[in-house]
Design goal:
The protein contains 13 helices and 7 strands. The chain has 316 residues and is of the alpha/beta class. The protein folds into 2 domains: 4-107 and 213-306, Rossmann fold (3-Layer(aba) Sandwich); 113-211, Putative methyltransferase TM0872, insert domain (DNA polymerase, domain 1). Helix 8 (161-171) packs across helix 9 (177-188), helix 9 (177-188) crosses helix 10 (199-211) and helix 11 packs parallel to helix 12 (241-254).
């Protein structure tokens, strides 16, 4: 058995609930699609299962190499979880018994001011999980006002997105997290004593856009459908409503649970067999975990079990 769990710097949210849903067993093979600091991976390894862990963040992969060297059952893959089907096939490691995904920014990324994910401390306006491609500063300084407003509205659910976008364009160039947060607060008339900081929505929106997170999530769910063997378990932890709605919709559709028809819109004959059976809906953290880890307050876990039906799009 591994002792790696004791050395993990962060324990992920809903850990016990995730492990209960995955039920890892000796001889099984599981995917941790969001390795981070290795919390879920450590717990799965302790159960005797092998883990193929993905992370697009080169810092997370570099930090995990020590764990990988000490653990024969661990394989680290420096790639997004949306690429798991191709990466597993290339290593002859498919199918698998379980897939777990912890969606969004990690605690380590938030805690490093130089990564630019948080306005709690000043840092460069970066937000790139993979450390390459378009940064938050690139987007905010180069995109037109309408595009910025659309991103703030769609991904941050900011009701005054046009006002904020107008303020961003007027304040350019923006270089730091503190500058961006100040522009948002001023545009929305934020008062320091107010509990909810409006910059939170703006930072979420820009981060999701820069990293293509919702597209990655959709593709990752479809990849999990392809790599899980019949009876395989899927566990997905989300941290905001956009992600949770996407997971909920995917599992409802794939389990054959689309809303029933009416006399105005009859039910269409099913054309695809259900690929998942939903095993839990919307598990939230308990009081003990919330007291120990406030980040768990916004977390939602959804789980499902793979059926024997062919993945959608790959039916015979």
């Amino acid at each position: 058995m591994s002792n790696v769990m004791a050395t993990a710097p962060h324990i992920p949210v809903l850990l016990h609930e995730v492990i209960d849903a995955l039920a890892p067993a000796p001889g099984e093979r599981h995917v941790d699609g969001t390795f981070g600091a290795g919390g879920y991976t450590s717990a799965i390894l302790l159960c005797g299962a092998a883990v193929i862990a993905f992370d697009r963040d080169p810092d997370a992969i570099a930090a995990g190499r020590t764990m990988e060297a000490a653990e024969p059952g661990l394989t680290l893959v420096p790639a997004t979880f949306s690429a798991m089907a191709e990466e597993l096939a290339a290593r002859d490691l498919s199918p698998v018994d379980g897939v777990t995904l912890d969606i969004g920014v990690s605690s380590m990324q938030l805690d490093q001011a130089a990564r630019g994910f948080s306005f709690q401390s000043d840092g460069p306006l970066d937000m790139r999980m993979s450390r390459d491609g378009m940064s938050a500063a690139d987007f905010l300084n180069e995109a037109d006002e309408e595009t910025i407003a659309d991103v703030l509205y769609q991904y941050g659910e900011e009701p005054k997105s046009r006002r904020v976008a107008r303020a961003v364009v007027a304040a350019r160039p923006l270089a730091t997290t503190t500058q961006f947060a100040a522009v948002v607060r001023k545009a929305l008339g934020h008062r320091p004593h107010e509990k909810k900081d409006p910059a939170t929505r703006a930072f979420q929106a820009v981060r999701i856009h820069v990293n293509g997170e919702l597209d990655q999530l959709q593709r990752g769910l479809e990849a999990a459908e392809r790599v899980l063997k019949p009876g395989g378990r899927l566990a997905v932890v989300t941290f905001h409503s956009l992600e949770d709605r996407m997971v909920k919709r995917f599992l409802r559709t794939r389990s054959g649970g689309e809303p029933a028809g009416s006399r105005h819109l009859p039910v269409a004959a099913p054309t695809r067999a259900a690929t998942f059976e939903i095993t839990s809906r919307g598990i939230r953290a308990g009081e003990a975990e919330l007291a120990a880890n406030p980040r768990a307050r916004s977390a939602t876990l959804r789980t499902a079990r793979r059926t024997a039906a062919a993945p959608w799009g790959l039916e015979a």
